[in-house]
Amino acid sequence: MNKHTTLKPLLYSYIRFSTIEQAKGQSLNRQLSFAKEVAKEKGLELDDSLSMRDMGLSAFHKTNITRGALGIFLAAVEQGKVPAGSILVLESLDRISRAAPLESQGIIAQIINADITVITAADRKEYNKETIKKNPMDLVYIILVLIRANEESETKSLRVRSALTKQCDDWLAGKRGFRVKCGKPPSWVVWNDDKKLFDFDPHNKAIMLRKLELFKKGHGGIKIAELINAEFGAGTVHHTGANVYKEVKRRSLIGELNVKVGDADYVLEGYYPPLMSKVEFDFLVADSSKRGATKHTQKFVGILSGVGVFKCGCCGKSVGSHVVYRKKCIDEVKSSHKRYGCVEARRNNNCTMSSTVQIEMVESAVVKFCQDKVNLQRILLGGSDRELINTEESALVAQLEKINDDINSLTETLLILEGTPPQAIANKISALETQARDIQTQIDTSKNKLAKIDHSFRDEVTDRWLSLTKNLVKLSNDERLAIRQLVKDTFKSISLQLNTFSGDKGGLNNVFEHLLGASNADYFELLLEFHNDKKRLLRLHKHTGELVSGYDF
Description:
Blueprint (H helix, E strand, L loop, with lengths): L10 E7 L9 H16 L3 E10 L7 H4 L2 H10 L8 E4 L10 H13 L3 E4 L4 E3 L1 H6 L2 H36 L16 E4 L4 E4 L1 H15 L4 H12 L11 H4 L9 E5 L2 E5 L9 H11 L21 E3 L6 E5 L14 E5 H4 L10 E2 H13 L1 H8 L5 H31 L6 H35 L1 H10 L8 H14 E8 L10 H8 L6 E8 L4 E7 L5 E6 L1
Parallel strand pairs: 1-2, 1-3, 3-4, 10-14
Antiparallel strand pairs: 4-5, 6-7, 8-9, 11-12, 12-13, 14-15, 15-16, 16-17
């Protein structure tokens, strides 16, 4: 006996609208009233908890199944959790699916085969195993309804795509004074009917700018949400702040609207008022790839670790901070119990640099070096690979243009040919499109590199080292977090080398000894690499942090 046959049959109602606006009419009340009628007629109780609603989800694109209530119901049916003899009430069969007819028919068959009766409000028809057995033409009717629904949705989709394509083409041609009907605008703008354009919403603009400021400082999503809700009111953002990581990478920040219509991608520049320049955005995206966000409960912030910059000179993996608390508050922990060391060596994972060094010694050495404004500016302004990067980017852009021309030529050839298009041409177009995406990624990477170089060139970087690093040992976590961001702005990488005396001279040991002479147990080395590829090698005393020797690459 099937386990769900012992359960009492239930009555479920399913209501779906493609847009929220459709729910504002009488259709919702009509569907709810019909469900109550069926419950009374069948002697079943209508439980509101069993009423499923998918508002604003499409049956044509199957979002009501992939992320809606119907998908949960179908999973319950498949797992045998819906009692046999239960009833599903809906307005019409196309509420369930408007996808391809065979696929839609399979979904309805899954429900009926689980001994569930489907009742439609539009025509008062019942569909179950018994009714279909008595009248097999019901199957034909079901398929005809689903074919019609799919064709209607397909026609509507084509009209929407055509209208959207025209709007995008009009915008690119210079026409203004209209809204492109695609998705929701960002929260910090509002449509101005008088001016026929988007204006800033002052309150939401202030919220977004504050989010960006906190993100740049290195705060994580939970901390950002906590601060935003404290400053702008409880419930302003979700307490997890999870959406922040998506918001800071959206090109609407620079005023762009990106629209995909079929296989075509449209970029509408200047559609929204921008919150930042393209240079600032490129740097933000490049910077976010190596986030220095702290955990919400983190007690100590190392200014060098956690941002993808500080590396082990032996294995090349990350160097992390380690604090031995021994039931003490962070302020009571001795300096000797706050240490930097290779993360992999600590895990005994193929790294021999098991020694560690006091955090204070390493951080003080880096800060002291960067506080020398003349010396730091000499390195930062001493040239870079900007010209080479620009040359490579120009070559990539030319290559991308050539590929796009080839794609257009092949597409025109397909339009001219009659009958079934040759598969070879279609395959070639697909390969070129893949190649174009790869090249575009390389172009974006080049822009990010240039953004980092430009950012580190500014006088502001050297000034910030002087202003932010005073009284380093006494700084709070938030103040240390600001310095961590400054480390990312200044350095491409910092490599730590501690003499292991294990007989293994791998990693950077040989390089350091060749340039600075033999090391000993009292020394450690730092290799500072800047965004313009300039390097500075420092040998320092482990216990005092004093500079022993140095070398410029």
